[in-house]
Design goal:
heterodimer; A: two-stranded antiparallel sheet; 2 strands; B: Rossmann fold; Rossmann fold; four-stranded parallel β-sheet
Chain lengths: 345, 382
């Protein structure tokens, strides 16, 4: 192994690590605010990528039907609840977000010439279909059991994951897809060939991380989420709705997941079940950060990416073993240094 | 509650009565979901195209999905044997499931025709494997075809990259032993996972070993990943794939990076290019016409053709067995087994089957051709 190969492997590791870092951040966020260990995080990666791929072949993505169905059910539940409590003025809002929005989107998708749209518009449309699934998922699966112990939330999370993988097979079929890169630009830096897409991935990750930092530090909603993460009951007493905090968190998690999917779709072939493994590697990063610290989680995820790249060179057959074995020393170290992970806040 | 019980009893009685008639019950175990779904789905579609009567007897196909899971495959088979009284079982899609089903099929004395590739399913033909047959070519037959093509093209050194599972491992063992016997030097042996997002490390190692040719042992679209990475790193040597990639989705995903790739495949892949004198051409074309009529042009895959061949064997064996016993009896199942073992010159979409008491596959070299990917399509190498 010479310097050139080490550079190439490092480059590959950082690109993958950037995606893992995004997912690790989303996992930490979801766990901190809602105490859900968000296993379906990876599914948003696959849904985002495959929805974009479907749009690019000129088909209306089947995820739209999921959005319509979930929106309809959520509208029914919320509508009945609002009508019973006599809060009729809530009804237009409920119907607007859950029914009208998906219908307008459906109208758009059927009337636009999907194939020939510029890529940016396709990406925005794909995100517009996939991201709202996040808050809807929270509304239907997690909000009814929001006060349950972590273990029950985890079990619900596993159930949602299995359901989403099954639906993914139904929507997208068993074969994978790849999308064209955002730009065909290539830079030669010494021995390295850096493709435009890799720059896109790393830049987008950095921008998202900075944006999240600003969001949590400077906006009212961001501060509300932080407050909920630190003390749920205290936050509630201050007038922060836990349901809203949950939906907002899942919105962000879905956005990060779907965007990661869109970013890596040109680099690799995405299948309906690819997301799980990617999410799991993000999870290893999040565990390194003790499911509590954002910077350590991001650094841990980049470490996972690098470890993966180098182990694929030295011992490709044992790559996954090496990556996932990393959890054990980390857990030992964490359990020796702290008694309760939650106290790391 | 009581009403419900009575109703249930009535329904199960009705079903039992249905099964007791002299219909032939064919159990089918396919992996239509899970990791092997891209193989299982075309197989499942194929069973819908099979004839509903053979030699004047009505045939019921009982199709269950084993979700690519070994335990489910065995459970499905037990269920079909005890509840549906099947006369023969077709399946499963993948080798681990098929291997697990052997014990159950042999115990019940039910003939089984597998659609999975591993040679261990039918070899050696022992007390249990007496009951087991299979339609896909052995990996050894395909390996030989690749090695032959490599030596003819003057290849001296070969690198291998395969799935980190039974498929990749099986190919490595078969291929490396045949290749080394023919004086090809193996210079790299790498593994990757179906769901990997990058194979840069493995590909760098392969490229730095400077092989004349690279064999990628993967199935379906995941096999495109190393090929794309090799091209990206400027690898200019020959690239070989296995017959696991022989479907149109692979061409769609791999695009122009796959031009000039060689692979061995069943003749059904290039049926229209076969000479008219080839006896496989007629059987293969019949399957393609039927499948494409139902599922659209270009939808056919070689995996579905393995399922079709199980049906061809059955259609040839059932009339023979019917002369000896009535369907639904142990005698019929034994007679069907004997008839399957005696299959002679049965033309399937993948080749001509000639079974014997020591060979429960029965395919010869007519069952494979070398194919090159040209202009985004499959081209028969003459």
């Amino acid at each position: 192994m010479d310097f050139q190969i080490a550079m190439l492997l490092g480059q590959d590791g950082v690109t993958n690590g950037a995606i893992y870092a995004l997912l690790a951040l989303a996992l930490v966020l979801v766990f901190a605010v809602t105490r859900v260990i968000f296993i379906p995080q990876g599914e948003f990666v696959a849904y985002g990528a495959l929805t974009l791929a479907a749009l690019q072949t000129g088909r209306v993505p089947a995820t739209l039907w999921l959005l319509l169905a979930m929106g309809g059910v959520a509208a029914l539940i919320d509508g009945i609840a609002a009508a019973r409590s006599g809060a009729l003025r809530k009804l237009p809002g409920v119907a607007g977000w859950n029914v009208a929005y998906p219908l307008v989107l459906a109208g758009l998708l059927y009337s636009l010439p999907l194939e020939s749209l510029p890529m940016l518009v396709q990406v925005v449309l794909a995100l517009a279909v996939v991201v709202p699934l996040g808050p809807l998922m929270y509304r239907l699966a997690f909000q009814p059991v929001a006060e349950a112990p972590v273990l029950i939330l985890l079990i619900v999370s596993v159930a949602v994951h299995v359901a989403m993988v099954g639906l993914g097979l139904l929507f997208f079929g068993a074969e994978g897809s790849r999308t064209p890169p955002f730009s065909e630009v290539r830079f030669e830096v010494g021995p390295m060939m850096i493709s435009g897409q890799q720059i896109w991935v790393v830049m987008a990750s950095v921008v998202l991380i900075v944006a999240l930092y600003q969001f949590f530090g400077r906006t009212l909603y961001g501060k509300a989420l932080r407050a909920t993460a630190i003390n749920r009951n205290g936050a509630r007493l201050m007038g922060i709705s836990p349901a809203l905090a949950g939906k907002l968190t899942f919105f962000l998690a879905a956005l990060i997941g779907a965007l990661s999917g869109v970013l890596i779709a040109p680099l690799t072939t995405i299948y309906y079940d690819t997301g799980f493994l990617i999410g799991l590697k993000g999870f290893v990063g999040a565990i390194i950060g003790g499911l509590g610290s954002y910077p350590v989680a991001a650094a841990g995820a980049v470490l996972v990416g690098l470890l993966e790249a180098f182990s694929s060179f030295w011992a490709s057959a044992y790559k996954e073993v090496i990556v996932f074995t990393l959890i054990i020393p980390v857990l030992v170290w964490r359990s020796l240094t702290s008694h309760h992970v939650e106290e790391d806040e | 509650m009581k009403m419900k019980h009575t109703l249930l009893a009535a329904i199960s009685l009705a079903f039992a009565a249905g099964a007791a008639q002299a219909d032939i019950n064919v159990g089918v175990n396919v992996s239509a979901t899970g990791p092997a779904a891209s193989l299982g789905i075309p197989e499942k579609n194929t069973f819908a195209l099979m004839p509903t009567t053979i030699a004047g007897e009505k045939v019921n196909y009982i199709i269950l999905d084993d979700a690519s899971d070994t335990t489910t495959a065995v459970k499905n088979l037990r269920k079909m044997i005890s509840e549906d009284k099947i006369d023969v079982v077709l399946g499963s899609t993948i080798s681990p499931n098929s291997l697990a089903m052997i014990d159950v099929a042999a115990e019940a004395g039910t003939p089984m025709i597998s659609m999975a590739a591993s040679s261990r399913i039918v070899d050696p033909v022992d007390d249990k494997r007496r009951w087991v047959f299979k339609t896909p070519q052995n990996d050894a037959q395909m390996s030989t075809a690749i090695v032959e093509h490599m030596t003819n093209a003057g290849v001296k050194t070969v690198a291998f990259i395969g799935f980190a599972d039974a498929y990749g491992e099986g190919w490595w063992q078969q291929f490396s032993s045949i290749a080394e016997a023919r004086k090809l030097k193996m210079v790299a042996n790498e593994r990757y996972n179906r769901a990997d997002t990058s194979v840069t490390g493995q590909v760098l190692k392969i490229v730095s070993a400077r092989p004349d040719a690279v064999l990628i042992a993967g199935s379906g679209t995941p096999a495109a990943l190393p090929q794309k990475a090799l091209k990206e790193r400027g690898y200019a040597g020959k690239i070989y794939q296995t017959h696991g990639v022989a479907n149109n989705d692979f061409l769609r995903v791999c695009g122009k990076d796959c031009e000039g790739t060689f692979l061995p495949a069943g003749p059904v892949l290039v049926a229209s290019q076969l000479p008219d004198s080839n006896p496989v051409k007629k059987a293969a074309t019949e399957y393609i016409t039927k499948y494409e009529a139902a599922h659209g042009k270009g939808s056919v895959s070689t995996f579905g053709a393995h399922a079709w061949d199980t049906g061809r064997l059955l259609q040839a064996a059932v009339p023979v067995a019917l002369k000896k016993a009535k369907p639904g009896t142990a005698e019929f199942r034994a007679a069907l087994r004997d008839a399957l073992e005696g299959s002679k010159e049965v033309a399937g979409a993948h080749g001509i089957f000639n079974m014997s008491p020591t060979d429960h596959l029965g395919l010869d070299q007519r069952s494979r051709v070398m194919v090159e990917i040209q202009n985004g399509g499959w081209k028969l190498v003459k």
